[in-house]
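quick one before i forget lol
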Amino acid sequence: MSEVVQLRVEGVGRVFPGVSGRPPVTALQPTDLAIAKNDFITLLGPSGCGKSTLLRIIAGLDRPTSGRVLLDGKVVSGPGPDRGMVFQSYTLFPWLTVAENIAFGLTERGLPEAERAPVVAEFIAKVGLRGFENHLPKQLSGGMQQRVAIARALANSPDILLLDEPFGALDNQTRGLMQELLLGIWERERKTVIFVTHDIEEAVFMASRVLVMTARPGRIKADVPVDLPYPRHYTLKTSPEFSRLKALLTEEIRAEAVLAANEH
């Protein structure tokens, strides 16, 4: 992995104001993080630990209560084309075709059709959707819809791809295939990826680094390098080193889940 730091999170915290007389909720404790260019980071933690909050702040979709995010040395103050976001729900425009959904960001930027078309065709091929260009989202399976969402994010050529549990709604078989698809695209495109999940096996299989978050209020409690070679094949999941990492992270997450349960 490259050692050029692309993204810095400096003291970023998030407190949500209380509602109906309730006290404020600290979702994220002040957090520091440095991410190198081309890294594949997974953020792993129990539900409600602030993973998605941190990702949304990096995306510019939410503002931190404290601290700041720097991308290539510039402060992130809102969303931008340098960051592509993929959510768990497919967030496609139901009235647009596959090709039109993928072209959406390019259209918004004012690229003429002659420039959009080859980019859209390229990413339709990369996510394996040739022949579905004119289909509407309702005509696609969940896995296919998520392929469109990933292609739409990548078509804008962002520096960083941010994914918030993108495979969480998929069945296990489709999820495994999507993991391999995304890794293949990452290896070819050489993007920096930050991937939120609460699935330990998924976190190990995808990442070059796994960042483990505590139960709420969230903070990063462990930074675990995954020294497994790329490209990765699903058979890796039965290897001794994979099992060792999975066991280590299971203990880290279990400790947090127990803490969270005892507080309720």
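fyi The helical segments are 51-59, 98-108, 113-126, 142-155, 172-189, 200-206, 240-262.
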